[in-house]
Amino acid sequence: MSLAERLQSLFVALAAVAGLAAGLLLPVGPAAEHVVLPALLAMLTAVFAQMDAAHVGEVGRARTLVAVSLALNFVFTPALAWALGAGLLGGEPDLRIGLLLLLVTPCTDWYLVFTAVARGHTGIAAALLPVNLVLQLALLPVYVLLLGGRAAMVDAATLAESVLLVLVVPLALASVLRWASYRFKGAAWRERYVTGPASRLVLPLLYAAVLAMFAWQARTVLEHGADLLALLPPLAVFFVALPLIATGLSRMLRLPADQGVTLVMTTTARNSPIALAVAVAAFPDRPLIAVALVVGPLVELPVLALLAQLVRVRPPAASGSAPARTRQGHGRER
To answer: Which family is it part of (predicted)?
Structure first.
């Protein structure tokens, strides 16, 4: 993991503080508003450009892990998100929707980094990425409309259009870019000039979006700063409960150690960039929802870094052998 990735949580916080200062001290709010969504769309295109569909074949080699991860991500977690919102944020509808958007979107990017650090099965983790993306794309409007209740206050057409804009369009652009570069220039050229640069653009674009959003909504943050603290208890419950449940299930089902690590990471990591993009597009008149989503990675990233050390696969103490290598997927894209 690079230094920039290790310090991502700090950089997100610094971007938020810089944006807040700029929004309070300078008349940049109206201009910053027009930066947020384009920066997020460019970031998601860069994320999707790195996705390799060839890994999907790995899914069939770990059916138990895949079934459990899908059940936790798309059945248990939405129910937990609703319960946490109703129980702890009942009087804060915008925070409830922000929490729901964050928790029902499994991660499709940085969990791979933490899986690798913890010596999990990165081949299966990569195979789950497009599966998680397609399912959250299809189910996100359903979750918001059914579980958000009156707090959502958005019609199905508006929500569907927002999901189409922030997920389908970047995914389509990235897919065309990957295919065209591979078709006309080859895999090596694509890696050097497409996927490599895309990986280096993701974090700067995320920081730019966070900075612009806080500059745009500086007054909102100032007025509701104390309210945002109400997100900490439900986030704490989630980021403690999910790793414990995933670890318990992996032991009960006797999953291999590297698959157990993968289960913990794929069910704990959340997709705050996608949730943020949906919030900005679907709820433009309710900025507190988007602001609430920035709190997520400030808590999540340190938790994932700690988890990577706690659940890391280690060699048997008595064997004296070198650490076991993480298994990788080696599918070839066509």
So the answer is: Belongs to the arsenical resistance-3 (ACR3) (TC 2.A.59) family.
